[in-house]
Fold this protein.
Amino acid sequence: MTGIDAKSLIAGDLADRRRERLQHFRPAWLVAVTVPIVGLLASGTRDDFWAQPTWILALQALVWGLALFVLPALGLGLWFPGRAARVVLGLLAAAVAFLVAAGPALFDMSYPTGLEDHPIYQLGCASLTLAAGALVLAVCAMSGAFAQRRRSAGALWLAAAIALIGIDTTTWHCVITGLDHTLPSHLGAGVLMLLVAGLVGAALHRRQREP
Amino acid sequence: MTAPGGTSDPGRAPGTGRGAPPGLHALMDRYLDGDARAFAALHAALAPRLTAFLVHLVRDTAAADDLVQATWLKAHLARARFQVQGASPDGAVQAWYFTIARNLAVDWLRAQVRERRRREPGDPDGGERDRLAEIPSDLPTAEELEIGEAEAQEITSRVRDALAQLPAGQREIVELHKFQGLSMAEIAARLRIREGAVRVRAHRAYKALARWLTPSLRALLVLLARGGA
C-alpha cells in the first residue's frame, strides 16, 4: 500500500482549479463592476435616489448582489448549490428584476412626471440598459466566462446577471417610475438583453469548448 | 463483501448500467464542473464497489487498494473525456470507473506474470493467468470509452508541459537521464561538465517538476511506477 489518498488529492486539485478560476476572472469581474459605475457617473444618478422607499432601495441592493456576486459565481462554476436552491435563485432573480422595474407603480408609490410615454426617454433608458449589458457581455465573452460550465445552460446564469446589471443601472439613473415607461424600456430591454446574452453565451460556449 | 454493481457475484461486470446507484450521473455532472462536494458523494457511492471488484480480481487487498486509488486518479485526469454512452446515464458513470479499474487490474496481473517469469523462469504463472481469464468482458472497452488513449495523452501532455518550462540546461539532463536512461556520470561525460554540476541541475529540475505537476498527477505517477498499476 502506498498510503496515497486519491480522494483528498482530487479534492485538493478541484480546490486549486477553483482558486485558479477565481484568480483568472477577478480582473474581468472588476471591469464588469466598473461598467455600471462609469455609466452612472457619466449619465448621473436619479435625483430622488435617497427619497425612494427603503424596501425599494433594499430590492435594488439585492439585485446588485445577485448580479455581481451570486449569479456570476453560479455561471463561472465557483459555487454549486443544489437543484432546489438554483430554482429559488432563478425565481428570485426574475421576481426582483420585475419588482425593481415595476414595484413603485404597482404599490402606488409612483408619481407622475409626464414623461412616461415619451419616446425619447423610452429609447434613452432602453439604450442605457442595453449598453451597460452589452459592455458586460463583451467582458464575459473576452474572458472566456461562458465556457466555464460543462453545459451551455450555465451561460444563462451569466446572461441573467448581465440583464440585471442593465436593469439596475437604468433604475439608478431614471426617475420615471410609471409602468408605461419602465415595462418596455427598463424591464423589456432587460429581457431583450437576457435573450441576446443567452444566445451569444450559448454560441460562445459551443465554440470555446470544442476541442 | 459488497458486490459491485449490486449483484451477488463480485466478479460480474458492474458497468453495463444495471444496478448503478441512482443519481450518479447528476453527481458526475457537477464533479466535472468542479464541484468538490459532488465528487465526495460520487466517491462515497462508488468506492466500496470498486474496492470489492478489484479485491475479487487481483486477490490482494494491498494491491487492490493501490489500484482503487489509481482508478480514481486516472479517471480524474481523463474526466474531460467522459461522455454518456448507452441508455442509462448512471450506468455510464459506473461503466467509466469500472472499465478503468478493470484495465488497471489487467495491467497489474500481467506485470505479476512478467515479474514471476523473470524471477522463476521454470515456474508457471502462479494463478495470475487464471485470474486474467476471469476478468469480466461485458464492460465497455477502454477504446469504446476513449479513455485508454486519452489518459495516456493527458499524462504525457502534462509532463511535457512541465518539462517545457525547465531551463534548457536542466531539461537536457532530465531527458538524458529519464528518457535515454543515462547515468549521471554518462551525462557528465557527454555534456563535458562535472558530474556534481549534473547532479545539482538534475536536483533543481526534479524539484521544479514536482512543484509544477499537480499532486494528483504526481501520486498517479508514483502508483504507476509501482507494481505495474
